[in-house]
């Protein structure tokens, strides 16, 4: 196998509508990888972008042959784009990094040196501060990691995102997991491989806007909880029992009042009880629905993504020219 077939390092970069940051990102990434002194590939995963991202990436290959482009047919989400990258990467080590320069490319070399020196399978990029995050992001992230550390274990770092290095052995194990909607920041620590970390200050997004609107954040949070815990279902049972006990007490109270001759109309309390029990039932139904929906989509066994083209594909006929 030639070095190009299995390079030392694959850098996986999911990108969704990142036309503004691509030039800036490449400008920072290339000098870093050129000092590596070994073979590498830059595996860009275009997650169904609708801006100039695909043209920019294909054009980039002419001046930087180590760039490989995998384009997904539709926007499948950050984690699915990462899955596509991990499944296609050929390196002995695989680093995943965001395209917006919030994760500094210079740290890749530090990760690699650490992994090789201490024979580690995983090196996490750990943020030393979140001062560049908005107040809302800090609060929601704090809540998310508190809950997820309870569900998925203490190995989940509250300050590690998707900037990490994985060894070939780890990637190969990840590829065998039948997880339908993986959340890598939880799944990777859960595997328990020897790991280390490098710290970095999280920078501002270099250009463009976040590609993680609230709806995608909620989706990630729901995937995270349902992947690692059935506690919400247990919570629903407790909530149901509590409401039942409350209603029973109220029923006894009303019967006693009736028997004692206090026949007040009491429609307000009745109304409140009906509203409250209805609300609790709907919440519990919703929780059930989240799990049933995931069982349903897991049973459908639809792939998480479809590749439109991969420039490393030997057939390669479908790769457009720019
Ligand atoms: N991304 C993606 N598909 C999506 C959303 C985001 O591939 O549906 C990529 C995006 O291009 C970036 C990374 O995932 O490289 C992280 O997204 P972003 O920086 O917008 O998230 P934030 O840092 O705001 O949480
Ligand atoms: Mg970002």
UniProtKB/TrEMBL annotation:
It is a multi-pass membrane protein. The chain crosses the membrane at residues 235-256, 268-292. InterPro entries: Glyco_trans_2-like, Glycosyltransferase_2, Nucleotide-diphossugar_trans. GO terms for cellular component: plasma membrane. The keyword Membrane applies. It comes from the Bacteria. Signal peptide: none annotated. Residues 10-169 form the Glycosyltransferase 2-like domain. The keyword NAD does not apply. Belongs to the glycosyltransferase 2 family. This is Glucosyl transferase. It comes from Planosporangium flavigriseum.
